[in-house]
Inverse folding.
C-alpha cells in the first residue's frame, strides 16, 4: 500500500521535474538586449546614427563597466550573505592613493617616496590588494564580533577610508606611474581592465557554485541560525567574504589609476552604490541567499549601457542620475515582487 | 456573485440564519506549479460545532484553510457563507466576513504590546483622534477575562512565552467577533495545562454558536474536542464523520489509505558501550548539574514541560550555547564542545526543534539543504565540491527517506512539513553520526511520516547510534525510549526505565 501512495503522487509531480528551469540570467540578458536595442532605435531617430555599431563606444562602455564590475563581484557575495558593503567606493580611493605612491617613476618630478621609485608593477598591486584586504577584514571583524549591522560597519569604513585617502597626501593627487604599472590599465590593446574583470567574474562565479566556500555563503544568507547549527563558522566565513569584497575594491582602485594614470582622493565616489545597483539589477536579492555573479555582470553591463546611451542621446548628466535612481528602485521592486510570488507558492 | 459587502450585511442579520451551515465550500480546486494541492474539495461547517480537519502533511488542509481565510484564491469552485456566495479577495476581506485564522506560525509583532497587537488597525481613539491607550487596556482586560487568560496587556509580545503568544493570537481572533475561527495546530507549542485551558475556551466559543475549524495531527484532541471530523488525502476530500461514530483506526485508515499496525515500531536492540557521557553539565541560569550516559543503540528520551531546559541541554551538548561548567566525554575521551562544528567533527548530529528558524534554508533547494552538514568534512577536496558524488549521495538519501519532491532543486519551502523534516534528517544522516540528538522530531508532522521517522530512529539505534530524543508527546517518549530522563526547571528530576515508565510517573517528575 505504501508504494501505491508514492505512485499516486507521481503523475502530479513529474511535469515539474521534466520542465527545464529557465535560468534567471536569461531574463536579465533580455533586459540588457532590450535596453541596447532601445538606444539603437532612439539613436537613429534622435542622432541619426547607430548606437551599437561603434567599436570605440562599446569599448568605453566595457572599460567603464569593468571597474564597477570588479567591485560588484565582491559586493554580490556580501549581499548573498545577507549583508551590504557601503565602503567599496572609499576603499577604491584609499587603495588608489596608497598604491599610487609605490608605482611612481623616478623620471617624475614630484615623487612621494624618493627612495621607492621604479618598483616592479606587482609591488603597488600587492600593496593595493593588501590595503583593500585590511579594510575588508576590519569590516568583517566589526560585523562578526560586535554584532553591529553591516550597514553601519561599512558606513563607518566608508567615511574613514575616504578620510585616509585625503590625509595620506594632504589631498594632493599622485601621478607619474611606471609604464609597467600602467599596463594593468591599458595593456592588451587597452582591453586589460576588461580581461581582469571577466577573469575575476568567472573565477568567483565558479567559486560560488562549485566550492564549499560558495555553498556556505548562500547558506549563511538563507538562514544564519540554521547555518550555525549545521557547523558553519559564521564569524570566520563573514570575515572572509568582507575581505574578498575589500580585495576586489582594492583591485578596482589599481585598475582605475593604471587606466587614468593619476590617483585622486575623490576617486570612486558613489561606486559602492553603482556596485550594489549592478548586483540588484542582476537579480541578487537583498534578503540574502539568492543571486549569481553572472547576473551581476549583466547588471553592470545594463548600467553601463544606460549611462553611455544617455550620454549618446545628450541627456543632461543631472537627468542621468535621476533616471539611474529610478532604475535601482525599479530593480528592487521587481525583486520584491518575485519574492512575494515565491512566498505565495508555498 | 455577491460582493463582500452584501455578505457582511447578511452576516449582521444573524438572527435569521438562512442556511444550516455557516460555511459551505464546494468543489474547490487549487493548483500550484507541479502540484495539484486541492482537487474538487468540498467541506461544510455547521454553526456551533468544532470541526476537525485531519490528513497527512501535504493532504491539502492548510491550502484549503488559506483559501477560506482569503490568502489564496481558488482556481475553481465556490464558497458560500450563510448560504451566500462570496469571493474572498484578501485576509482582511475574510475577517470582515467573520472568518479569523490563527496561524500555525505566529504572526504577532514582537516589539508591540499585547494590547496593540490585538487591536491593531482598530485602536480605540480619543477625541483628538489619537490612540486611547487606557481604553485599549480596558478592552483587552475585558477580552482576557472572558477567555480567562492571565496576561498583562501592556507587556511587549517578545517577552511572552510561545504558549502565551498563542493565547494572544486566539484572543485577537476572538476579538473580531468572528463566526468562523480557523485554528491550525494550536496546541503544538502548548503544555498539557495550557491545552486544557484552550479546550475550555473552545467549548465556550462553540456554545456561542461560533463554528471552529480545527486542524490537528493529534488523535486524542480530536476525540476530546471535535464534533465532526473531515479527512483529506493527497489534495482530495475523503469524508466527514461525526467524531462519536468513528474510531482512531478508522481515521488513520482514511488518512493514509493503509493500515498502520504499530505506531511505535520499537525493537529491542543490543545496547553497547557508553558513547556519550555527560557530567555536571551546566549553563548558568538555565540548567544545572545534568549528568547522564547514553550507550550505543540506546534511545534516551528527554521529557519535561516546555521551559524545563530540555532543549537547552541539547543545544549545549551540540555547542550552540557552550556549557559554563561540567564535562562531556565521547567514548571515554573528554572533549570540549565549543561550537556545532566541533560537535559534528566528533560524530554528533542535532535535529533542532524549530524547523523554520534553525533548520531549513527556505529559499534554497532540497539538495542545498541536505548537503550543508556533510560538506564540513566530506565531498570536498581543496575547497572544491565533488558535485556528482554529492548529488548522488543526496539523491539516494532522499529516496531512502522517501522525500516527496518534484526534484532535488525544488525549494524546500514548497515542500510539506513532513518532507521538510525528512530532508533535515537526511542532512544529518549523511554525516553518519554516532550520536543523534532529536528535538521534537515529529512535531507538526502527519501520522504516516511520523511512523516513518520512528521506524528510521529505531533502525539507526539498531546500527549502534546513540539517540537522545526530546519530545513533548508522551506516547512518543514512552513508545520509543529505552530510558527516560525527566527534567523540571533546569534540573534532572529522575530517570525511568522502559519497563517502569508511564505517563503518570513522568508527569510526577516533570511537574513536581
Amino acid at each position: 500500500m505504501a508504494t501505491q501512495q508514492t505512485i499516486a503522487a507521481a503523475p502530479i509531480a513529474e511535469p515539474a521535474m521534466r520542465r527545464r528551469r529557465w535560468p534567471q540570467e536569461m531574463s536579465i540578458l533580455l533586459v540588457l538586449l532590450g535596453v541596447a536595442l532601445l538606444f539603437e532605435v532612439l539613436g537613429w531617430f534622435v542622432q541619426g546614427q547607430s548606437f551599437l555599431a561603434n567599436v570605440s563606444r562599446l569599448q568605453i562602455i566595457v572599460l567603464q563597466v569593468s571597474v564597477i564590475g570588479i567591485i560588484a563581484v565582491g559586493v554580490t557575495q556580501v549581499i548573498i550573505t545577507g549583508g551590504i558593503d557601503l565602503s567599496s567606493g572609499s576603499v577604491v580611493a584609499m587603495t588608489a592613493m596608497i598604491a599610487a605612491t609605490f608605482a611612481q617613476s623616478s623620471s617624475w618630478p614630484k615623487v612621494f617616496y624618493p627612495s621607492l621609485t621604479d618598483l616592479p608593477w606587482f609591488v603597488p598591486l600587492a600593496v593595493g590588494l593588501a590595503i583593500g584586504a585590511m579594510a575588508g577584514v576590519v569590516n568583517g571583524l566589526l560585523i562578526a564580533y560586535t554584532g553591529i549591522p553591516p550597514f553601519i560597519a561599512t558606513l563607518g569604513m566608508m567615511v574613514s577610508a575616504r578620510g585616509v585617502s585625503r590625509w595620506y597626501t594632504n589631498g594632493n593627487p599622485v601621478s607619474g606611474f611606471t609604464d609597467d604599472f600602467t599596463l594593468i590599465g591599458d595593456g592588451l590593446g587597452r582591453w586589460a581592465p576588461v580581461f581582469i574583470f571577466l577573469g575575476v567574474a568567472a573565477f568567483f562565479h565558479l567559486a560560488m557554485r562549485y566550492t564549499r566556500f560558495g555553498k556556505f555563503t548562500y547558506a549563511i544568507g538563507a538562514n544564519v541560525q540554521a547555518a550555525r547549527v549545521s557547523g558553519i563558522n559564521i564569524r570566520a566565513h563573514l570575515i572572509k567574504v568582507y575581505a574578498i569584497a575589500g580585495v576586489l575594491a582594492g583591485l578596482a582602485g589599481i585598475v582605475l589609476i593604471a587606466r587614468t594614470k593619476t590617483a585622486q582622493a575623490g576617486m570612486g565616489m558613489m561606486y559602492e552604490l553603482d556596485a550594489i545597483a549592478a548586483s540588484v539589477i542582476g537579480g541578487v536579492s537583498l534578503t540574502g541567499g539568492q543571486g549569481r555573479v553572472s547576473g551581476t555582470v549583466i547588471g553592470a553591463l545594463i548600467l553601463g549601457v544606460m549611462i553611455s546611451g544617455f550620454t549618446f542621446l545628450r541627456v543632461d548628466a543631472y537627468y542621468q542620475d535621476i533616471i539611474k535612481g529610478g532604475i535601482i528602485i525599479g530593480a528592487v521592486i521587481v525583486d520584491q515582487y518575485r519574492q512575494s510570488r515565491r512566498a505565495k507558492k508555498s | 456573485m455577491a460582493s463582500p459587502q452584501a455578505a457582511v450585511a447578511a452576516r449582521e442579520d444573524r438572527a435569521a440564519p438562512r442556511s444550516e451551515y455557516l460555511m459551505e465550500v464546494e468543489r474547490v480546486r487549487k493548483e500550484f506549479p507541479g502540484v495539484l494541492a486541492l482537487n474538487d474539495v468540498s467541506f461544510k461547517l455547521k454553526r456551533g460545532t468544532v470541526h476537525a480537519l485531519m490528513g497527512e502533511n501535504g493532504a491539502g488542509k492548510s491550502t484549503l484553510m488559506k483559501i477560506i481565510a482569503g490568502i489564496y484564491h481558488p482556481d475553481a469552485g465556490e464558497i458560500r457563507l450563510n448560504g451566500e456566495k462570496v469571493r474572498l479577495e484578501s485576509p482582511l476581506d475574510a475577517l470582515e466576513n467573520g472568518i479569523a485564522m490563527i496561524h500555525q506560525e505566529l504572526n504577532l509583532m514582537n516589539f508591540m504590546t499585547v494590547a496593540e497587537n490585538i487591536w491593531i488597525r482598530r485602536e480605540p481613539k480619543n477625541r483628538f483622534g489619537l490612540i486611547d491607550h487606557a481604553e485599549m487596556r480596558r478592552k483587552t482586560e475585558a477580552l482576557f477575562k472572558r477567555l480567562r487568560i492571565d496576561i498583562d496587556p501592556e507587556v511587549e509580545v517578545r517577552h511572552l512565552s510561545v504558549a502565551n503568544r498563542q493565547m494572544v493570537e486566539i484572543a485577537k481572533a476572538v476579538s473580531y467577533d468572528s463566526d468562523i475561527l480557523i485554528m491550525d495546530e494550536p496546541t503544538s507549542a502548548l503544555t498539557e495545562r495550557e491545552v486544557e485551558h484552550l479546550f475550555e475556551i473552545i467549548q465556550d466559543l462553540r456554545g456561542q454558536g461560533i463554528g471552529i475549524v480545527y486542524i490537528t495531527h493529534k488523535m486524542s484532541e480530536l476525540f476530546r474536542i471535535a464534533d465532526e471530523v473531515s479527512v483529506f488525502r493527497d489534495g482530495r476530500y475523503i469524508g466527514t464523520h461525526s467524531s462519536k461514530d468513528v474510531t482512531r483506526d478508522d481515521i488513520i485508515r482514511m488518512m493514509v489509505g493503509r493500515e498502520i499496525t504499530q505506531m511505535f515500531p520499537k525493537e529491542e536492540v543490543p545496547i553497547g558501550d557508553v558513547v556519550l557521557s555527560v557530567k555536571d553539565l551546566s549553563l548558568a541560569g538555565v540548567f544545572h548539574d545534568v549528568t547522564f550516559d547514553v550507550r550505543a543503540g540506546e534511545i534516551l528520551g528527554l521529557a519535561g514541560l516546555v521551559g524545563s531546559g530540555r532543549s537547552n541541554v541539547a543545544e549545549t551538548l551540540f555547542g550552540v550555547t557552550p556549557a559554563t561548567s561540567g564535562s562531556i566525554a565521547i567514548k571515554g575521551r573528554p572533549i570540549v564542545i565549543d561550537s556545532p562544528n566541533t560537535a559534528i567533527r566528533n560524530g554528533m548530529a542535532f535535529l533542532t526543534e524549530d524547523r523554520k528558524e534553525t533548520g531549513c534554508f527556505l529559499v534554497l533547494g532540497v539538495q542545498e539543504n541536505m548537503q550543508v552538514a556533510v560538506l564540513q568534512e566530506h565531498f570536498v577536496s581543496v575547497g572544491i565540491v565533488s558535485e556528482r558524488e554529492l548529488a548522488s549521495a543526496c539523491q539516494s538519501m532522499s529516496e531512502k527517506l522517501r522525500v516527496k519532491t518534484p526534484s532535488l532543486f525544488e525549494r524546500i519551502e514548497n515542500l510539506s512539513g513532513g518532507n521538510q523534516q525528512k530532508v533535515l534528517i537526511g542532512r544529518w544522516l549523511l554525516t553518519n553520526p554516532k550520536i543523534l540528538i532529536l528535538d521534537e522530531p515529529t512535531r507538526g508532522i502527519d501520522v504516516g511520516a511520523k511512523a516513518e521517522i520512528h521506524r528510521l530512529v529505531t533502525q539507526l539505534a539498531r546500527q549502534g547510534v546513540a539517540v537522545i530524543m526530546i519530545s513533548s508527546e508522551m506516547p512518543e517518549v514512552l513508545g520509543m525510549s529505552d530510558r527516560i530522563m525527566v527534567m523540571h526547571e533546569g534540573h534532572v528530576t529522575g530517570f525511568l526505565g522502559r519497563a517502569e515508565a508511564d505517563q503518570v510517573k513522568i508527569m510526577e517528575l516533570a511537574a513536581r
Observations:
- Chain B has three domains: 1-98+178-193+211-256, 104-176, 274-347+433-511.
- Chain B touches chain A through 52 residues (CB under 8 Å).
- The two ends of chain B are 59 Å apart (CA to CA).
